[in-house]
Give the backbone structure.
Amino acid sequence: MVICAVIGATGYAGAELARLLLGHPGVDRLILSSASSGGEAMSSVYPNLAGAFGKDPMRAILVDKSAAIAEAQVVFAALPAGHAEEIAALCSEKGSLFIDMSADFRFGADEATYSAWYGKKYARPELHAASVYGLPEFNRKKLSSLGPDAKGPRIIGNPGCYPTAATLGLFPAMKLGLAELEGIVIDAKSGTTGAGKEPTKATHYSECADSINPYKIGEHRHGPEISAVLSSMAGAPVGALFAPHLAPMGRGIVATIYVRLAKATDEAALREAYASFYASEPFVRVLGAGAYATNRNVRFSNFCDISVHVPAKGRTAVVVAAIDNMMKGSSGEAVQCMNIALGLDERAGISMLPPAV
C-alpha cells in the first residue's frame, strides 16, 4: 500500500487522477494539493467525489505542495508545462516516484526540442536525461526499473493524449517494418477536455457545438512528440503530418492515420500482424474485420481500440485509434505507469469496462 499525492488536483487531469486513486486497491491514502482551491473540500469543487473520503467527507485540498510531497511515496503533477522540474527535484531527493502529466519530461535529454516548442529551458538537465517516457506498451521494461529499490531519479513523463493515440496506432507498422516512414498523415479529433479546465473562446459552447474545427495543423506542440516517439519505434527518422481537430464532445480522441505500406498487403494480414503484436497488451484492443474504432466504445476506460483498413488491397493503410483522452490519454495511463513501476497488477484501479451508452 502506498501514499499518493496529486499536485494540481482541481484541474481536469488532477480530478480524474483523484477519482481513480480513491478506488485503487494499492493506495492507502491520497493527498490532494491545489493552489487555486486551497482550503476547499474536494467535493465542493467536484460534487461527483462526494462521500469518497469516508469519515472525512470535507477533506480539504492542501495548498502546501511541499507538505504533500514530503509525505507521499508517489507524486503526480497535473500542472501546466514549466512547473514540474522543481517537484521532480524534491521527489528525487527523497526517493519518491514522480509522474509528470505535463510536457516537461516528455522529451528526455532533448532540451532543444522542448525549448523550441514550450519556450523554457532545463534547470536540471540530469533529471530529464534520467526520465522515462510513460507509454507502457513501448517502455514497459524501463518503467518496471523504477521501483522503490531503483538508484537515481524515478521520473516518468506521461505522454500527451494525441501522441498516445497516434503512436499506438502506428507502433506495429513502425516496429515490424510494414510501412514507409515518410508521408504519414495523422488526422485526429479531440474532445474539449483536452484543452483543459480554463475556458477559452475556442471551447465556448457557441463556438464548438455543431462543428468540427481544425486548428494548428503542422504547428501543434504534440507534433514533435509524435515524431520523436515514432522515430524511436522505427529506429529511423519518421516524417508525419499531424492535423488536430476540436470535436463537439466532452472527452475522447479518434485518430485516423494514413500510412503508405512498404508493399501491397492484404487487410486481413495487416490486421493479424497488429493483433499478434498487441496480443499480450491488457489495454489495446485490435478490432475484427468490419469494425471501426470509435471513442464511444472506450469512454471512461483505459482502453485503446484500433481498427485496420486497407482499401482495395492497396499500398495505403488507414489505421483508426480511439482513446478516452482523460483516461488512456492522461490519468489512466499515469496510473498504469505507476502500477508497472511499483510491481502492482497493471490493471489495478483502471480495469473498468466502457459503459454501453
Q: What stands out?
A: The chain has a mean pLDDT of 93. The first helix runs from residue 12 to 22.
